[in-house]
Amino acid sequence: MIIRSKAPLRIGLAGGGTDVSPYSELFGGAILNATIDLYAYASLEPLDNGNIEFLIDGTDKRFVTASKKELQVIPEFELFIGVYNRVVKQFGLEALSFRLTSYIEAPQGSGLGTSSTLVVSMLGAFVEWLQLPLGKYDIAHLAYEIERVDLNMSGGKQDQYAATFGGINFLEFNKNDRVIVNPLQLKAEVLYELEYNLLLYFTSTQRLSAAIIDEQVKNVNDKNIKSVDAMHNLKEQAIQMKEALLKGELHKIGEILHFGWQNKKQMAKSISNPYIDGIYESALAHGAGGGKISGAGGGGFMFFYCPGMSKIKVARALEAQGGKVQPFKFTKEGLISWKTE
Question: Is 37 annotated as catalytic?
Fold first, then answer.
């Protein structure tokens, strides 16, 4: 028997960064994001040889150890080990023997929430295998704690909830890790038009989000007025985006994205750079109404709202700069797990 699981990656349409503590604890955060048809996969095969095996599909990276209740965290397999250790500890299990293989349909460090989505997917495989009593909110919160508490990795909360629930959601982040997921019920024509006009572009660069997020956290702790005000504006941007989508006012999307991008760059110095600024200006010059970098910033994917018939023109201009346009569609479903022989 093999247990498989998949969870969708996401693009953050508005409010990015307001899900990161201490801002979300002090002021409350709000994000609007959407899952897309790129996935993080996990395949779990129970073994009877007394070993634990971790594999990263498509690479030669492999880790094998004798089964024990707690594993020491090692580089490149932190997420695997973090999930295993937490599951065994939280549910009082004996040491397990299994092979766990991962695969992600986007580069890590691309700004689409790959690491958090992979944690959700691996958790989903364990929940399916062991029939753990966890609902969607439980899985998302546990994935967050594994990354941010157990493994002490910098970041926010939005990715875990997006991957678990799926769809287009307005997420609210409050004190004491209280998160509310509000699915948007959009008219079909609004969803199709939004998908038609959005262009997702890989800059062919990757980044380590931790340093950017750490700078953002420091700015909040230091009460950096410029940075904190920018986050307030990004929270307002999420509300504006929600209202525009629910009312079908897609002509406002480009302007709302541009407002967010101008503020996001104030949160931390390393969010943008001359290369990213050049891509952004080129997109606008060829017809895009606005856009942003996906995730913490510094590299990875960007996306742009291209109204009318400007999408192809923008795509050609951006691909001339060495990156690649990534086709995508929105997804309605989040985490899915199943068994196969």
Answer: no
